[in-house]
Amino acid sequence: MSQPTDPNGAHNPVIVLVRPQLGENIGKAARAMLNFGLTEMRLVAPRDGWPNPSAGPAASGADIVLEQAQVFDSVADAVADCAHVHATTVRKRGVTKPVLTPEEAAREMATMAGRHAILFGPERSGLETDDVALARTIVTVPINPEFGSLNLAQAVILLSYEWSKSRDLAQPTSEELLPPAPQEELDSMIGQLEAMLEPCGYFRPESRAQATRRTLRTMLTKPAWNHLEIRTMRGVLSALARGPRDD
Predict the structure, then answer these.
(1) Burial 202-218 (b: 16+ CB within 10 A, else e)
(2) What DSSP character marks residue 94?
(3) Full residue range of the structural domain in which residue 205 is found
């Protein structure tokens, strides 16, 4: 049995898979974790032992999670160093504890000191009552009451994503996002389009011309066009105006 460790990501929640059945599902859970910056996985009595050759291909490159995964004999051993334990289940299973949504649980993880562990049960049956009894809170995903079946990786990715929202993960920077184009460029593009439509009779009858122009402008000003998009669109309009090329 491995001993719990306190890695560099000590404030990150620990993902605990309780009696997981398939190596593929362990690998998919590892992939879901690493997508959102989580690397510490703990396995409690995996059915087919560990390591499992089926886990690696399913992890799709999340090897660091699998390589560092620790194996424990019991849930109590796996969460011994954690101050907060959250059990994921669609039912309370007869245990009276605070019930949180994934968003609420993530907020606790971000604000309450001490290590947090999130328990996920076996694929077929989920966590047993004794497993849930060890937890401080129950985390339940709002879900279709007539079909409350999430697979293991889906459950892991939901909790990991909610946790990640409080972290500074990669997002497009302001330099990567072009600012909206000046109004002058937008007006020029609309004017070009109107000039092309005029000889086609698009704005007839005359009694409806003003309303038609207004509707067209309203439609074209809804997107926040940047200058590159406007230049591209004007190129499209120019190509249409020229007609087919001889070559």
Answers:
(1) ebeeeeeeeeeeeebee
(2) T
(3) 183-242
End-to-end CA distance of the chain: 74
The answer on 23 and 144 residing in a single domain is: yes
* Torsion angles phi and psi, residue 20, rounded to 5: -65, 150
**Cβ atoms of residues 181 and 225 within 8 Å:** yes
Domain co-membership, 86 together with 156: yes
Per-residue confidence (pLDDT) for residue 93, from 0 to 100? 55
Structure tokens at 143: 């879900």
Q: Are residues 158 and 49 in the same domain?
A: yes
Q: With DSSP H G I counted as helix, E B as strand and the rest as coil, what are the percentages for the chain, rounded to 5?
A: 45, 10, 45
What is the pTM (predicted TM-score) of this model?
Answer: 0.67
DSSP state of 226: B
Is 173 domain-assigned?
Answer: no
pLDDT at 3 over 80: no
Lowest mean pLDDT among 160-164, 209-213, 217-221: 217-221
- Do 221 and 158 lie in one domain? The reply is no
